[in-house]
Amino acid sequence: MTTVRQRRGGRVTEGAEDQPSEEKNVKSDGKVLSDLTGGKLWNILSITLGGIVAIGLGLLTSFYVATLHENDLWFSNIKEVEREISFRTECGLYYSYYKQMIQAASIQQGLHGLVYDNKTESVRTINILERMNVYQEVFLSILYRILPIQQYLEPVYFYIYTLFGLQAVYVFALYVTSWLLSGTWLSGLLAACWYITNRIDTTRVEFTIPLRENWALPFFAVQIAAITYLLRTHLQPAQERLTLLAVFVATFLFSLTWQFNQFMMLIQALALFILDCFDMLPTAKVTWLYIIQISGLLLVCVLQFFNSMILGSLLISFNASVLIARTIQKNLKKGNLFNRLGKLILHVLLVSSLTLLVNKFIKKSLNLESDEHIFKFLKAKFGFGSTRDFDANLYLCEEAFGLLPLNTFSRLSDTLLFYVYIFSLFPLTVAALIVAFRNLSGSNQIQEKAEEYTITLKPEAAYNLIHTVLFGCLALSTMRMKYLWTSHMCVFASFGLCSTEVWRLILKCVHLYTSQRTQMIKYSIPIITLLYISYKFWPGIMDELSELREFYDPDTVELMNWIKSNTPNTAVFAGSMQLLAGVKLCTGRTLTNHPHYEDKHLRERTKQIYQIYAKRSPEDVYRILQSFGTDYVILEDSICYERRHSRGCRLRDLLDTANGHIMDGLGESEPDLKPSLYPRFCEEIKKNLPSYTLRFIRVFQNKTFHVYKLAKYK
């Protein structure tokens, strides 16, 4: 009994002795619970505030570009014909299909007119939905017709406000991507501010509204944000499935709205391929991204009536080749350093060979030649022999397809963007090289040494690093593509400046690392940068918003009004691609050629039409124009007497070279070129010589344009 009592007493005593400790634990647990609740509440408040800031900045950006557009043109006050003329070159062509759908008697008739179009290219019936990426115009026109807004909003405003609204989506996606990478919405705020203050180099939406890239790039930014989230570790299966769906939808919309989608996604696929080879991304997720790219593009192919250019794209051939090569080389990521390097080299050669073979087989089977001008241009651009090909030289001589001008970097440096970008790029690139070498070697010793660097290169950071490097190379080589790089530059620079991992790596390298110092720098430097940007650029933005200008192009307005009043609706017009897009939009007349250049027959037709600016006889020009059913031809002094380009790059020089004729003006010519037997057509026709007046009757002229009607001559 004593023993029992002692045990009971012992238990009671132990309980009595432990009671204060239990109370202490309860208090401690309560404190932890309180801390956890407070932390969750703070996270919810932070996410809510960050989301509100993101939406607000997106809407402000939309308002900003819309105001700039209005102030630049006085768009609300000018006539309809002036509004339409402001949609220059191919922009006018795309908008004309929106206008055509709006004016159609019914949606069905509008769609029929696009599928069986005989006004865009004379003496040919083409399918606009197959040839061009205009589903966005179709969707928007249907939406305008079914919504009860016709009495309150003109069709043109519904169109341009939609494009300006997409800028809000664009900025929101950039903001979210930067936030996901850095873990703080301060990074997103900085990315959005850089996008706005570097507007000249990040977007051109305010003066090229219907351009395909202005539709596509917001969806591309959403896709990058979704991929960034997808590559995070420890995602729940439901989260992963929803993110894959978001990636697919964004990829599909991006592909549907821009004809150059396949080339942009090919670069993206190369980024995934490089990272997967070095084992820096989860293979399963990379496989899903390859499949999403292929399926998204094939779905667009179906919607575009099995567009042959999509089927013959390098992207489909490359992605299919990667998936095939993987099944052949199953043990690619096993072995020591030299073993893996050998396998990797073999894998790259296998994928490259398969891509070329598959692509050549598809193009041979389907007889595809739609994109051959792009490869001719690339071949000449990168110095693989000179060319006299008219189409390739037409691209080579355009400033937009030249190298990125150096003054771009001075503008980007004014906002500190370029400096911060390089500051972020260097340590992350070094970390990437270390991690790649560690992954290839598989050495424990090297892994221990590289452990501190691993945290700076999470899969999502690795993807965005290689993405910005590859698209940077594209922008440096082709100025027109800089908008793909500069917007992501804002994301990457703000991520680097607000990243705990980047600052930890830098401070450890200089032996100054402490957790408190890292946190202080992570927040203080971005805030100082934001204050600097606001102080320096806010007055300029306000001045820009208060500057008022007005659209003024009386010669083109006079020409369009004359065409509408003095020519039949069935009249066929020939001229430059850029001008004819405006003719179709403003007057609805039939064209011989237009600026959407992704068709071999159209390229050949355009070269023939452009003989009006070459050294050809009136008989030859008349015969060419007649073969395309031409009723009127428009000659432009700005092309005939062009001074914008130097000798060798003027349109008349490109035609002379392609025709084997010596160019005008002082300078050397290739030895096998010969003088033409005839004077330049566009100059000689103005002299009213009998050989010209028999075939061409001048019916309109002003300071810029000369319109000639083709006479009935045998």
UniProtKB/TrEMBL annotation:
GO molecular function, a single term: mannosyltransferase activity
Official protein name in the record: D19L3 mannosyltransferase
UniProtKB keywords: Glycosyltransferase, Membrane, Transferase, Transmembrane, Transmembrane helix
Transmembrane segments: 41-66, 179-197, 217-235, 242-258, 264-281, 312-329, 341-362, 416-440, 461-479, 485-507, 519-538
Sequence segments annotated as region (Disordered): 1-29
Entry's localization field: Membrane
Statement: the UniProt record of this protein carries the keyword Transcription regulation: no
Highest rank taxon of the organism: Eukaryota
Similarity comment text for this entry: Belongs to the dpy-19 family.
Topology of this chain in the membrane: Multi-pass membrane protein
Organism, scientific name: Asarcornis scutulata
CDD domains: Dpy19L3 (cd20181)
InterPro entries: Dpy-19/Dpy-19-like, Dpy19L3
Keyword Transmembrane helix: yes
Bias (Basic residues) ranges: 1-10
PANTHER family: C-MANNOSYLTRANSFERASE DPY19L3-RELATED, DPY-19-LIKE 1, LIKE (H. SAPIENS)
An example Gene Ontology CC term for this record: nuclear inner membrane
